[in-house]
Design a protein that fits this description.
Number of strands: 11
Radius of gyration: 21 Å
Mean pLDDT: 91
Largest sheet: 7 strands, parallel
InterPro entries: Alpha/beta_knot_MTases (IPR029028), Ribosomal_eL30-like_sf (IPR029064), rRNA_MeTrfase_TrmH (IPR004441), SpoU_MeTrfase (IPR001537), SpoU_subst-bd (IPR013123), tRNA_m1G_MTases_N (IPR029026)
GO biological process, one term: methylation
CATH class of the largest domain: Alpha Beta
Number of helices: 9
Order of helices and strands: EHEHEHEHEHEHEHEEEHEH
Shape: globular
CATH topology of the largest domain: Alpha/beta knot
Strand order of the largest sheet: 7-6-5-10-8-11-9
Organism: Desulfobacca acetoxidans
GO molecular function: RNA binding; RNA methyltransferase activity
Keywords: Methyltransferase, Transferase
Length: about 260
């Protein structure tokens, strides 16, 4: 079954990936933006059907008016499976970083979280089959092209999958605004899975039980007692990124010969 993506960045990212199974690209007749030529040229170079339609037709296809005048139809999204994830982790030359989401049903939250995961150097995002939104056109739009590069792993049982990842050597860190441990007092340079739960309910009990540690983001204003999933995920991801870059820099400095070294 085919699916729809829409918006400038998702469509250009899909066109830029040779393995993306694009069927056609549809552009609104009245769009005159500079990037339209890039879309046309990429579609023609790959032999992908290109159509011009009225904007109202794109509104219907996208189910939204926020498509920026470009829509693409492509093959059904392929989720990756847990055995593929375990195999991928074994091939990495750096500490793994994964995000697992539990109970996130808002497409914008999931899409933005995908974008932040990729930008911060994450190696994949895990979603449970039930009680969490999957990859939809709205998720693709919010991800702004990240889904063409970031692998999404869909699992039947998130708690059991976290246990398997722990057995593979990863630490599981959960998030909770009421946790006594601060994010900024935690070593995040080890192989990690970070679990992001719903803003209102957090992680489910069985998922929380698999966490080696639960951390909080210290907020300056007590009346704001939590962040939405995408915002919390971005804060955590880039603190992980900061710590890992700092550790890499320190390792490089320590490996340099001192000025007094003999050759």
């Amino acid at each position: 079954m085919s699916r729809i993506i829409y918006g400038r960045h998702p469509v250009l990212a899909a066109l830029g990936q040779p393995d993306t199974p694009l069927e056609e690209v549809i552009i609104a007749q009245e769009v005159k933006a500079n990037w339209v030529k890039e879309v046309r040229d990429l579609a023609r170079s790959r032999g992908i059907r290109l159509r011009l339609l009225e904007r109202a037709a794109l509104d219907r296809l996208a189910g939204s008016t926020h498509h920026q005048g470009v829509v693409a139809r492509l093959g059904a999204y392929r989720y990756y499976q847990l055995p593929e994830l375990l195999q991928h982790l074994a091939s990495l030359s750096e500490p793994p970083l994964l995000i697992a989401v539990d109970g996130i049903t808002d497409p914008m939250n999931l899409g933005n979280l995908c974008r932040s995961t990729l930008a911060a150097g994450g190696h994949g995002l895990i979603i449970p089959k039930d009680r969490t939104v999957g990859v939809t056109p709205a998720v693709s739009k919010a991800a702004a092209g990240a889904l063409e590069y970031l692998k999404i792993y869909r699992v039947t049982n998130l708690a059991e999958s976290l246990l398997r990842l722990k057995e593979a050597g990863l630490w599981v860190i959960g998030t909770d605004a009421q946790a006594p441990q601060s994010l900024y007092d935690t070593d995040l340079t080890v192989p990690l899975v970070v679990v992001i739960g719903r803003e209102d309910k957090g992680m489910r009990p069985r998922v929380r039980q698999q966490c080696d540690l639960v951390v909080a983001i210290p907020l300056a204003f007590p009346e704001i007692n939590s962040l939405n999933a995408a915002a919390a995920g971005a804060v955590i991801l880039f603190e992980i990124r900061r710590q890992r870059l700092q550790k890499q820099g320190q390792a490089r400095r320590e490996s340099r010969p001192t000025s007094g070294s003999a050759y």
